[in-house]
What does this fold into?
Amino acid sequence: MIKQLSIAALALALSAPVVAEKKFEDHTNMMDHGDGHLMDATGGMVMGQNTDILPGGCDSIAATKEITVHAGHKYSEKFPGTMFAFDVQEYQFEPCTKLTINFVNDDEVRHQWMMHGLPRYLYPKGMFHLEVTGPGKVSGTLIFPPGDKTYLVHCDIAQHMEKGMKGQLKIGKGNGDLPSIPGVTANVIQDDYSASMPEKSLADTVVGEIADIQKKVIGNDSFFSGLTIIGLAIGLIVAPLLARRFKDMSVGEIVTYIFGLVKGTIDIIIKAISWLIGLVKK
It folds into this structure.
């Protein structure tokens, strides 16, 4: 019996699928599809490559540079709350620089290194794009336009940028910093992992404190005071959330946001009133 079980276990082990890790692949033999679009069948891609055409306003190549960019989960370890990252989050080059990027994917999944906002007369899709599926390397070249500008570089795979895989590339002095670049600039909405709140919720705490004040000052029998308590409670609960939401926003962005919030509230009230009128008529 023991012998039979041993044979069965051996047979099961031999029949189990073996999942081998993909070997590192250097994507050097890609097919040229025109317009700077290179691609192979094993997961390597370059879009928007430009090795020799000068952008308007560039009389010559200002400098010829080459960098290696790594992408992977392990580079996110220094940024709590992220899942993926590049090994470098900020780059800076002279205008009219010819840059070759060696993009290395250190993960078993697909990653990209993309720039948007490039002049479309030269880059048909307005972008430069490097992509590798699984461990491997792909290289591509582009020539930067003149002027001072800050470009977003990121991975466009679903949720990879949101989970940390992004950086900024400045041409010349750039035109400011982009928000939420890991290790470079603050998040638009900062995560808060503090454990300072008691077991009671914020709403319960605020309403309880206001109710105590109401009892001491204006008593318990006023309908108006009840509405006041509700209004104050809502205000105190919403105010910190709005303050956090408005952080780093311009005045114009805040006004636009508030108008949108008011419009949405009015729409809800109108629908509620219409619903009540419909019930009364029945």
In short: The radius of gyration is 29 Å. The first helix runs from residue 2 to 15. The mean pLDDT is 82. Helices lie at 2-15, 202-217, 223-246, 251-281.
